[in-house]
Amino acid sequence: KNNMKKPASRLIQFALGFAIAVATADAHAQLAVKGKLLFKDDFKTPTNYTSQRQPVADGWTVQVAHSNWKKTGDGVQSNWRGGHMPVLQFNCEHPFSNVVIEVDFRFHKEPGTNGPNKGAACRISPTNPSLDPSAYSASVWANLDSKDRQPGMVLEHDVWKPNGIVTVDHKPLTLKPDKWYRVRMELTGDTALASCNGVTVYGSHDKFGLPKTTIALGSGYCVHDFRRFRIYEATPNPKWTALASGKTTGDARLNLPSGK
Question: 39: closest CA among 53, 54, 60, 62?
Fold first, then answer.
């Protein structure tokens, strides 16, 4: 009996050790710690998404900024109709700063088609039109092949003018059609961290810390689905260790299409 207990005890110790190691690694990977839920949207409220602001939660409205958006059984779906990439904009009466933002997305591609079918990406862009006009204060892209940005995970500040994009961090990213992915964006002070499918980008910019009043949710040009949009109050993670790849303002200015 004693011999049987030892392997079981060792197995339990190993499992606990593994769980602690995973938790520690996760803590070091996260810039921010989630707090109170500030906003959630499962895309069930408006009957139809239009360019007019519609109440979606207490103090929050939603409107279509570009292209077509419609409700589905999973959440909401973007359908590009020419011109700018699809964008759904959320507006908040009360400015927020230190937050964790999460959304799930997937995309669909039809084999053998080109043109509008190209370009899969998810973009989260919190900003403040009054304090940072004609710009996205902070923006993260999980980009497979949209023509609007470099492929990969991209963290940036985007001013809507030629050469207005400051790329703060960029890493390769693998995405596949018809599979759900979660994009997580963390903001504390002037520093941001974002992750998707095991890839993390982070860095600092003086505009990242501005109080935000809107969030633009953007998609690529093929059909995209979104679900489970969440914004949490956040505090800095005391166990977080800065990643070696982190950058600060002005590392790269790219001549890419910018704008809302």
Answer: 60
Helices marked H in the chain — which ranges?
Answer: 2-29
- The answer to whether the beta carbons of residues 183 and 122 sit under 8 Å apart is yes
pLDDT tens digits for range 35-84? 999 999 999 988 899 999 999 999 999 999 999 999 999 999 999 999 99
Q: How far apart are CA 158 and CA 87, in angstroms?
A: 15
As given in the structure block, the two tokens for residue 151 are 């492929």
Each residue's pLDDT tens digit, 163-210: 999 999 999 999 999 999 999 999 999 999 999 999 999 999 999 999
The answer to whether residues 246 and 138 touch, using CB atoms and an 8 Å cutoff, is no
Cα angle, residue 72 at apex, residues 66 and 77 outer, rounded to 5°: 25
Q: Give per-residue burial for 126-158: e unless 16+ CB within 10 Å, then b.
A: bbbeeebeebbbbbbbbbbbbebbbbbbbbbbb
CB 99 within 8 A of CB 184: no
Tell me the one-letter amino acid at 194: A
In this prediction the pTM is 0.84
**Helix/strand/coil for 4:** helix
